[in-house]
Each structure stands twice: as structure tokens, then as C-alpha cells.
Amino acid sequence: MSRPVGRFAPTPSGRMHLGNVFAGMIAWLSVKSRGGSMVLRMEDLDTQRTSGEYAEVLRKDLQWLGLTWDLETPPQSSRSGVYDKYFRQLEELGLLYPCYCTRSQLHSVNAPHLSDGTYVYPGTCRNLTPRQQADFGRDPAWRVTVPDKEWTVEDLVQGTYRENLSTHCGDFVVRRADGVYVYQLAVTVDDGEAGVTEVVRGMDLLSSAPRQMYLQSLFGFSHPAYGHVPMLLAADGRRLSKRDKDMDLGYLQTCMKPEMLLGLLAYHANLLDSPEAISARELAGEFAWEKLKKEDICIDVSSFVS
Ligand code: GLU
Fold it and tell me: Could you tell me the domains of the chain?
């Protein structure tokens, strides 16, 4: 079997929190336990929220943890010319159309939503005439039409996940009205061009996988393996986020060594029998997808900092 290629795809909008560290650790362990390589890419499409300084801090944080990478590919903010090329492919396939719906139209209470609140685009702008399009007098977002087809993700953690894009999200935006490409397109192109063979990230992104698989099939990329790891929750059941300053790496570095942090996370994830200090390299020898806990992981902050 050829060697796996994994990736870290952090958004440099703040310090890593424990959830990011956990997903990054599992991505690294999976690849390194089989002699593969890791690609690092900064996902900085949102230039308002991201910065080069945060990107530098993220690199230092990964190094501190011993989660090394073999190659860093250019940040997304520098690749709009590349994304243009793939956008034109979709255009040539006749799969794109301009959408003039406003944010308030899309999010109105009358808009179609699934029971979990997911918005399903009903195709409002799909059949506008050129005249109607011109009458809006402003730049549109661009949507890709989706087929009525079920996509199956054989997830390394979550098992089989099925989704039909036409009923789950409808035609989705690939380029915003301000010309910025969206995450789904950028991530598909970047993973595909970097030859990524496995995508390991938080469970919250599982429902993005079918959209990415669809774009992969249009662009001619092979589908990577997917592993969507459990979310880390604070003791009160909240998801950890970048707002939890007490759980970001800046704070955690002041109270513990990287080996202790990795050991605690690995223990909570069922990879170790006891919370002992262990390096990323040593932990790679303990890694197996079958051992990894599937349910959300509740973290008692005090157990980390005492
Ligand atoms: N950039 C995303 C994040 O930091 C991750 C996207 C991905 O792994 O596909 O949450």
C-alpha cells in the first residue's frame, strides 16, 4: 500500500484550543503510525479574521506538540488564481449559476430548513433569465447545481454516513458575491492538488464531506479516506471553542509539558490506559483507529491544569 498523506488545515484566527489539538494529534498519529507524510496549509480565506501572526503562532504550537509536517503548501489567501481555474471547469460543465438572494432572504423563517436547522437552498435563482439577472444590478454569488444522488462516507470513526445533497443543502455557493471562494471549493482543490489521501478533522465537519466528494468527482480527484473525530466538550457539556481562553494552547503551555498534554488527550480518547506523559512519536506506536473513542469527549478542565 502506498504511504498515506494527511494534512493539518488550521484557520489562523486565534490560538489552537484543545479540540484543534486533539484533531491535529489524531491526524498526525494516523499518518505517522503508517510511515506517511503530513501537509500543513493555512486556511485563511477569511482575511478579516485571520492573520500571518496567528499562522506563525500555530506553526510554533504544532512544533511544541511535536506534531511535525513535511511540507507547507501556500495559504488559501494566495490561491484565488488557482481556484479561478477550477471555477471555470464548473462553468464549462454548465453547473454554475449566479444567485442574487440576500442574506435576509436566505435566513428568513419561511426559508426551507431541515429539522436540525440546516438551510436547504430551494433553487430560487436557478432559472433566472439573463434579463432578470441584469436587473439586480449587482454582483452575484455563484452556486453549483447538485445531483439527486446519495453520497456515502465510510468514515474511520463514525462508520457509514449517507447524504443526498439535493435534500440536505441544495445547490451550494462556491464563490461569494465579493469574489472570495468558499471553504468547500478551496479545501477540495487544496487537498486534491496536495495528493492528500486522508482527511482527519472534527466531527462538526462530517456533513461537509459529501459536498467535497461531489466537487472531487467533478475535478477528477480521488476521494480521500475520512475520519471525523469526536468533539471535546467542557465539563458542562459546551463545545470547546476559541473563546475558551483557559483551554487555548497559550494558557496550557504555561502549566504543562507537551508530553503531558498529549498523554491526557490520548487517555481521554481511549488510546492509553492511563494519563501518562508520552511524546507524539511514542504515541504513534499506540495508535489504532479501532481504539479511538467515538462519542464526544468530556474534558474536566481542572484535570488538565492541576
Ligand atoms: N480550517 C478548518 C478549521 O480550522 C478545518 C477544515 C478542514 O479540516 O477541512 O476548523
Answer: 5-78+230-304 (3.40.50.620), 80-187 (3.90.800.10)
144: helix, strand or coil: strand
Asked if residues 225 and 7 have their Cβ atoms less than 8 Å apart, the reply is no
> How is the chain split among helix, strand and coil, in percent rounded to 5?
40, 20, 40
C-alpha distances out from residue 219 to 47, 83, 184, 277, Å: 26, 11, 13, 44
| Whether the Cβ atoms of residue 231 and residue 294 lie closer than 8 Å to each other | no
pLDDT tens across 2-29, in order? 899 999 999 999 998 899 999 999 999 9
C-alpha cell at position 149: 444522488
Nearest-atom index, ligand 1, CA of 212: 9
How is residue 134 annotated by DSSP?
H
Residues with CB under 6 A from ligand 1: 9-11, 43, 187, 201, 205
Which whole-number Å values give the CA distances from 268 to 23, 100, 137, 264, 287, in the listed order?
13, 47, 55, 6, 13
The protein residue whose alpha carbon is closest to atom 6 in ligand 1 is 9
All residues at 6 or more sequence positions from 285 whose CB lies less than 8 Å from its CB, including other chains: 33
Whether residue 7 contacts residue 27, with contact meaning beta carbons closer than 8 Å, is answered with: yes
User: Model confidence over 142-189: pLDDT tens digits?
Assistant: 999 999 999 999 999 999 999 999 999 999 999 999 999 999 999 999
Taking the C-alpha atoms of residue 250 and residue 168, their distance in angstroms, rounded to an integer, is: 38
CA of 138 to the centre of ligand 1 (A): 31
Q: Which atom of ligand 1 has the smallest separation from the CA of 10?
A: 4
Q: Is 257 left (phi over 0), alpha (psi -120 to 50) or beta?
A: beta
89 CA distance to ligand 1 middle (Å): 24
Element (DSSP H or E) covering residue 189: helix 183-193
Q: Render pLDDT for 267-279 as a digit per residue (tens, 0 to 9).
A: 999 999 999 999 9
C-alpha cell belonging to residue 109: 423563517
- Structural contact between residues 294 and 277, judged by C-beta atoms closer than 8 angstroms: no
